[in-house]
Structures are given as C-alpha cells and as structure tokens.
Design brief:
With 237 residues, the chain is an alpha/beta fold. 26% of the residues lie in helices and 24% in strands. The strands form 2 sheets. Strands 5-4-3-6-7-8-9 form a 7-stranded mixed beta sheet. A two-stranded antiparallel sheet has the order 1-2. Helix 2 packs across helix 4.
Length: 237
C-alpha cells in the first residue's frame, strides 16, 4: 500500500504532502508526525526511501506507508491521558508518535511477536529520547514493548481507550479485538481488506466505519508449547 502522495526530500516535506492530500487533517496529528522523523526507523542503508509514500519491509522489520499511518492516527482520535494498545508494535514508530499526544498521564503499550523487532524498537526509542528536540513541546508517554502473540493476551488484561492492530485481522478474531476496548473506546484494524474503525458505544453496542482498502499480512496464529498450553501475554498498567 502507499504511493498516494509525492515523495518528500525530508520528513517535513513528506508531512506537507500528506496534509495537502488530506491524509493528515488535524494539528495534533501533524505535530506528532513532524516530531518523529520516519527515516530514523529505517536501517541506515535504506534511509533514502524513508520519505516515499511506500511500505518498507526488511526481514521481520516493517513500516506501513505514511498515508496508512496518517489515516490510523486520525481515526484513533487521540487525546492526552488515554490508554493505547498497539498490537504488532513493530519498530515503535507509531507508538512514539502516539506517546507524544498521550502525554505524562497516558498508557502506551505495544505487543510484538518477534524478539529481534522488540530490540530494534528499543534501540530506536532510546535514540529518539536522546536526540529529539520534541520534548520542548511535548510531555512524552514512553511506550513499553512486550513480547508475545497479540491473540494470547492474559484474560486479566485491562481494557484500553484506543487499540490499533498492525496486521490483517481474520473475521473470527473480530470479537476478541473488540473485547479489548473500554466503552467509548476506538479500535482501528485491517479487517477483510479494509482499514476499519470500530467505536464501542455501549457494553454490547458498536459503530463500524470502513476507512479505505488496504493489504496487510494476516495475524500469525498462536503456536502452542509442547505442553499444549499457550503463553499468555501479561500487560500491566
């Protein structure tokens, strides 16, 4: 997915193009995108592609196209103090942008299947914290990344105000994803080839909006241990 807007020479020009094409529509989202340089989440030898509106994948490392992240950030309707769960948190690029909006009283959790990607994300987060000038303008809700399969969250896991899943969700897992939301919360995920926004309007009431057609790799199904038991992912606020 991607290719919807022109490439930029740098991060700011990419954001200008996303604004002009109406992918970025609110000031808060614009500020977060400008504060986190997309190229810093690429391997050095691939940085020249960072400002193109294209997805990037190298081994287990993956970044969605800028136009997709823009739609996700806008659909989440983020506000300071909310709790956020990123399922398939990857490089931590999205989680870092979200953290700038959530501020010091938010919760920012990521679950990632691949341990090498978690290490990569931690390195990128450390670099961002050490080098970014954004903290003059933002109070940061630092993301924490937990290893595991997002389909195996502990039943005692708290519900969240905002949830994003970065892999294609099979129809049979839709209710599981919805169960992670507080009433009033928003879930954004690829469902049946459409980026979908689901708002929990009551204990058993939902509003669903299809945002745009997307192509995401599907969620990886859990692998059970030799004992036949799954490894539950523990998330603590």
């Amino acid at each position: 997915m991607g290719g919807a807007v022109s490439a930029g020479e740098d991060n700011d020009e990419l954001i200008d193009n996303l604004k002009e094409a109406q992918y970025i529509r609110t000031e808060l989202v614009e500020q977060a995108f400008r504060a986190v340089d997309r190229a810093d989440y690429y391997l050095e030898e691939f940085r020249e592609n960072a400002y193109k509106d294209l997805a990037w994948k190298h081994g287990n490392i993956h970044l969605s196209a800028p136009c997709i992240y823009s739609e996700v950030m806008e659909a989440l309707e983020l506000q300071p103090g909310l709790s956020f769960l990123n399922l398939g948190s990857g490089t931590g690029y999205l989680s870092s942008m979200v953290g700038l909006i959530l501020g010091p009283f938010g919760v920012n959790h990521g679950v990632e299947l691949h341990s090498d990607v978690i290490e990569y994300a931690k390195q990128k987060l450390d670099f961002f914290i050490r080098t970014s000038s954004s903290f003059d303008k933002f109070d940061f809700c630092e993301p924490s990344f937990v290893p595991g399969n997002c389909l195996e969250l502990s039943p005692g896991c708290s519900q969240y105000d905002r949830v994003y899943c970065g892999a294609g969700v099979q129809k049979q897992h839709e209710d599981y994803m919805k169960s992670l939301l507080k009433v009033g919360g928003i879930l954004v995920m690829p469902l049946e080839e459409k980026l979908t926004k689901i708002t929990r309007t009551g204990p058993s009431a939902w509003e669903t909006k299809k945002i745009l057609a997307v192509s995401f790799a599907p969620l990886i199904q859990p692998c059970h241990s030799e004992s036949g038991k799954s490894r539950l992912v523990q998330l603590r606020k």
